[in-house]
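ASSEMBLY PREDICTION REQUEST
Request ID: AP-0331
Submitted by: J.K., bench scientist
Number of chains: two
Total residues: 1096
Priority: normal
Notes: Please return the full assembly, not individual chains.
Input sequences:
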Amino acid sequence: MTVLRYSRAADLAEAVSAGQEARLLGGGTNLIDLMRKGVERPQHLLDVSRLPAGIDETEDGGLLIGGALSNAALAADPRIRAHYPMLSRAVLAGASAQIRNMATVAGNLMQRTRCPYFADVAGASCNRRVPGSGCDAQGGVSRYTAVLGTSKSCIAAHPSDMAVALVALDAVVCLEGPAGPRRLAITDFHLLPGDSPEKETALAPGEVISGVVLPPSSLAARSAYRKVRDRASYAFALVSVAAGLRLEAGRIAEARIALGGVGTVPWRAARAEALLIGAEPTPELFARAADAELAEAETQPATAFKPELARRTLRAVLTTLAEDAA
Amino acid sequence: MSTLQNVLIGSVRTAVGWLPEGWLPGGRPDPLIGRHGAVGRQSALSDAPEKVTGAARFAADVAVDGLCHAALVHAPITRGRITRLDTTAAEAAPGVVAVVTHRNMPRVDSPALIGLSNPSAVGNSDLPILQDDRVHYNGQVVAAVVAETQAQADHAATLLDIGYEVTKAPTDFATAKASARTIPTLLYEPTQRAEGDAEADLSTSRYAVDAIYTTPWQTHNAIELHALTVIWEGDRLTVHDATQMIAPTATALAKMFGLKRENVRVLSPFVGGGFGGKGFWDHHVIAVAAARLAGRPLRLRLTREGVYRVVGGRSQTEQRVALGADAEGRFTALIHTGTSVMPPYSCSPEAFTLGTRAMYRSGSYLYSQRHADMAVVPNTFMRAPGEAVGTFAVESAVDELAHEMGIDPIELRLRNLPEVHPVTGVRFSQHALDQAYRDGAARFGWAERPATPGERRDGEWRIGMGCASGSFPYVRLPGASVRITLHRDGTAAVACSAQDMGMGTATVQTQHAADRLGLTPETVRFVSGDSDLPPAPAAGGSGQTASIAGAVMAASAKLVGELIRLAGNASPLAGLRAEDLHFDRAGLVAREDPARHESFAAILARANREEVSVTASGAVPMEMFRYAMHSTSAIFAEVRVSDVTGEVRVTRMLGSFDCGTILNPRTAASQFRGGMIMGLGLALTEETLYDERTGRIMNPSLADYHVPAHLDVPPIDVIWTGIPDPRTPLGARGIGEIGTTGVAAAIANAVFNATGKRVRDLPLTLDKVL
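STATUS: Completed
Returned structure:
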């Protein structure tokens, strides 16, 4: 691990101007690991941990979260806990207390897959790490790979918990770049692997995540984040479900669902949502919605259980939410 | 290990069986048994303050002037040879002192493999270490880079240009299993033991179960990474090491590097966990050689990935257990066979059938196991090798049989407890598993367990209870020696090269020596962790405490003679012989007349001596041949299993142990709990994941290899019978490993009780329950 240059950005403008050449350093909980493994070899590290790190209320009653805010502070914020509890729970379900203290919101969105073949520079081929080199994960150790949004070139899962909740909450990513600021729906931020898995986000060269906007949400009372994993804490999701429902007159008026652990990106369960809206909440409906969402899952031998696990977890979460709402 | 060894052990056992009891060392129970002294009292670890304050210096903490640092390069291929090796870029990198490859590595022989025939052997592998261009397994060290700083070494290690020619290697178990071999000896037992026709009896049994159980590869994950700080001064070598075999390591290094044994010193006063993994591995030899080549003091600390690549772990196993029983539940047939992995260059047969042989009697039985050759980092001993995974299979099968018969699994076990060792026919030295079960069941609330699976639930969570027996043999290793020094100020020092990997060796031996010498623990100092001290054997087989205790017994007996000689005719003890005296009140006392007493201080003062010192070795451990000696346990677990996700959460566990005298309840309870947590990891979370196409370990990190996290570990209750074993020093048997045995089966049995689902494949992950 050699870094030729380290500097610290005083403000967004400086981050943007230096950004073309530099790799941005937030909490370093993923980037530094990957540098140690030789996956990342930045020549210039630009520390952006001093950029805006607050939570401000927006005019329409939402929240603007600074990109440099720590995951721990995000999860602990009373406004987040009150109005976006699934986000708080998702963050607390991830990593460890020490890592959450260091990790930033922007960094969490930028974290890279934990596929073991991606991390194994010396011993494995990975299209995401070296385009065109092949994908050893297929047919290999693949318990933590994705079953939705996969391609021939890559089956790596997106590892974030936080991003799953943000996707369910229709968050908007605020970017600052050489061409000025722009906003992007979070579902457009992470890219499916397709033929170019190395291209993971919609960030343009030199662009910096300045923050994330949470639109106002009325789902707080009936929302949940449930994470299923191989040990009780400090493990990535095999499956996670972020979901919120709003019922009106015995029917589902609003449904927001996202899945973690199963997708190559934080997975918005749009098919399931479409079936739910306007319908009466019944176990049969939830089963149909779950089946529809997982219909196109493609599995490895080691992930053959995941579609069923995802269906079961999604059904259980929705059932609980509907009961809570009744 | 050989057929010859079987014959030798067998004939010793026969000969010892003929001897009258009084002839045997330990034939008369240790007089300290049942005495209420320092032994048996709660005592905190004697080195706890140093560890808590950070004052303790572990192997990688030792400050040395002019230190350089090494980084290892591991082969990314599994088998083949190096065809291109260019070190130019690495050598030119900033701070690089030396690059060590097979081209410039000093010629050293491989260490002798660990085995019964050579107690000082340390080798986990007999492959050449950086001696040629051959690669035998994925991750094998092919080079080391030495630099001024660790970061420079790590960086330069990435600059080596190495090309390989890859040849085919056995990397998947299913294929390797087909050509597995049987070796004659399994540690101390013939591999194969049979009585009657177990297959025939099984087929005619009133009740029968017959199933295959599988357990995964596991990797050692002690919190302290393996490390050495190496200092050469001419032909003198000092190694600060993290090891559980101090004296044997010094002996091995002396032999390999052509040094006089007294010129090699291995220091290891603190070790951050051993569990069988802190033995002698390639990095020892490479670090010592690299320091010589560099001409500088050198530190080599394995990375966590390095531990996975250099240090082997527990082999995967595939076991068949078949049980037949008559209408009363008496076993008519017991078959325990299977396959584990042991490459030809390794020495650790995962002896999963050994424990079973002592656990149950049966009308007929068949025990045997085979070893598959795979291209893997040499597998090794890992806490309760054999029994940890063997008890999973047999104790699951017993639970299955109990369910089929519709009787309580504890009752079924108690009906089949042996009166004598079922295979060798020798008597148990002490055996009270029945009491451990009764005590444990009462305290755990076993009576509340519904016999029918799936009856208890709390919302989506099904609740179940399970139990299983654990077992681990008693071992007292030959060759342990200690030096006892009495000082004129009334204090004593007991010294040997013992290893304390955190379990409390020094603490307990201080308590022991105090009682043995008639002193208080405050006036006794136990000195260890240094190969310059009288040699102790490796800490292994749960045998260190008994081994050193035996040596302390021998040395204290010798000390009596020395003190009589020094006391002379002016002493109140004059005229008494050694057998007339015992230690008490910081001196010697006549057995028949307690008024005749003289303190050590007085004896030394009259003799005008500052101190008196004796060194002695423990008696040959003949008790192991004469008696069947096993620690046993009854393990209880309660689990919750999600109906939705299959997640298993253990809500409480209890271990009820029968291990002889408990020397220090505080450190013992900690060892039991720690052992049980490792059993929990085996049951639910731990698995070293090899890519079976390539033979490469793909989860070499604590993020990807799941040891239990705090939230996985429930409250663990620990109780014991405390019945002394009359054939051992202090009445104690080993407690270091038994905690890990039985746990996986207890949890799997609890999952069955909760759900009706029988999982025979560890780790018991949620996909297997769904």
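REVIEWER COMMENTS: The CA atoms of residues 175 and 209 of chain A lie 5 Å apart.
SIGN-OFF: pending second reviewer
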